[in-house]
Structure formats: structure tokens, C-alpha cells
Specification:
The protein has 215 residues and is an alpha/beta fold. It has one domain: Aldolase class I (TIM Barrel, Alpha-Beta Barrel), CATH 3.20.20.70. 34% of the residues lie in helices and 20% in strands. β9 and β10 form a beta hairpin. α3 packs parallel to α4 and α5 runs parallel beside α6. The longest helix has 11 residues. The protein is globular. 41% of the residues are buried.
Length: 215
């Protein structure tokens, strides 16, 4: 089994980005304004971190926006090489987004809540470059779009990986204690975590090294 790519999310500064990359991360997550959850920073901070990151590293703009035109405008301000759609698009299409942002990768988050998520993932995979499976809930009054610290049913995530041809990142409650089991069950293209390698909100070098070692 090939070792999955590692994405460290909720990056707060250039120093955190460098620490994550030095320890093996091939992508970093930069969280813009969200209705809930940790790690959000200003768009100016996102731009600064993204511009200082080597081109080979994925810089993911996590957006809660659901309007394609607003997402396009936001990406042009932040200048990341990847957009992570944490919610469903309500206005505009994935094709429109890709046509207007050539060269920018589009990753759609699927919040795994039941077997209906398999059909949603299959449908969405036709229009994006990758999927990311997380444990949020868009249907709550205050939406949960990531950073919940909860795992979900990995057997459903395994079904998604088996049924689609696009890369799949696994997120949701991952840490050094459960990462090996998660990888063995799901066999994802990549893994993504925020809280599992942090202490008091700060990226923890020791936790990061243990997590990478366990992978």
C-alpha cells in the first residue's frame, strides 16, 4: 500500500506552513471565514502564506461560499493553487468554476453522514479534481463544515474510494492513535487533519512527528 499524501489543515502562519512541509506534508489547508470550527484566518494572511509556499505544495483555500462568482473572486484575492469547497454549490456549477479558474484544482468536501453520501460522492466526482471526506453537517442551523474533531463511518468512506476514480482525501477526527486503522480500512489517496496535531490551537511538532511516524 502506497503511503497517502498528507495535508495539514488550519495553518495559521508561514512558520506553521514550513513546519508542516518539513515533516512531510504535501499540502496545507488555509481556512477562510466559516460559520463554525477552528483555524480561520484573514484572506490577507492566506495570500501571504500561499505566496511563500513552494509551488509543488498544494495550498488549499477552504471556503464556505456557495456562489461560484464569489468563490472565483475570493480565490483571486487569496492566490492559492487549490480550492476546497466545504459546502455544496447553490449558485453556479463546478464546470463554470473550473472554466474561469484554469490551472486551479477543485476539491469538493463530502460530509459523510450515511450511505446516501456514496451517491453524492459518485455524482460530484464527475465535476471536480478530488474529493475530501469529512464529518460535518451542512443541515444544522449553524453549519459544521469541518474541524469537528469527530470521525465518521470509515466503511462508507471505503465504499466511496472503491467506487470512484478520482483522488480521495480522508478527514475527520484523525490523530496518531487512529491513523493506521483509518488508512488500512479506507486506503485513501491522502489524509487531512487539523486538531489531531495541535496543542492549544498551535501546531505541535512532537504530535506532528508521531503522526507521520505512525503513517
Amino acid at each position: 500500500m502506497i503511503r497517502p499524501r498528507i495535508k495539514i489543515c488550519c495553518i495559521q502562519s508561514i512558520d506553521e506552513a514550513r513546519l508542516a512541509i518539513a515533516n512531510g506534508a504535501s499540502a496545507i489547508g488555509l481556512v477562510s471565514e466559516m460559520p463554525s470550527g477552528p483555524g480561520a484566518i484573514s484572506e490577507e494572511q492566506i495570500k501571504i502564506i500561499a505566496s511563500s509556499t513552494p509551488p509543488a505544495i498544494g495550498t488549499f483555500l477552504l471556503t464556505s461560499k456557495t456562489n461560484v462568482e464569489e468563490i472565483i473572486t475570493q480565490q483571486k484575492r487569496c492566490r492559492t493553487n487549490t480550492i476546497q469547497l466545504c459546502d455544496r454549490l447553490l449558485y453556479g456549477s463546478h464546470n463554470e468554476l473550473k472554466n474561469q479558474l484554469p490551472g486551479i484544482s477543485i476539491v469538493q468536501v463530502i460530509h459523510v453522514r450515511g450511505e446516501e453520501s456514496v451517491e453524492e460522492a459518485i455524482k460530484m466526482s464527475e465535476f471536480v479534481d478530488a474529493l475530501l471526506l469529512d464529518s460535518g453537517n451542512q443541515d444544522l442551523k449553524i453549519k459544521e463544515l469541518g474541524g469537528t474533531g469527530r470521525t465518521h463511518n470509515w466503511e462508507i468512506s471505503k465504499m466511496i474510494v472503491e467506487k470512484i476514480q478520482k483522488p480521495v482525501f480522508l478527514a475527520g477526527g484523525l490523530n496518531s492513535a487512529n491513523i493506521r486503522q483509518a488508512i488500512e480500512i479506507v486506503q485513501p489517496y491522502g489524509v487531512d487533519l487539523c486538531n489531531g496535531v495541535r496543542t492549544n490551537g498551535k501546531l505541535d511538532k512532537n504530535k506532528l512527528e508521531i503522526f507521520i511516524s505512525n503513517i
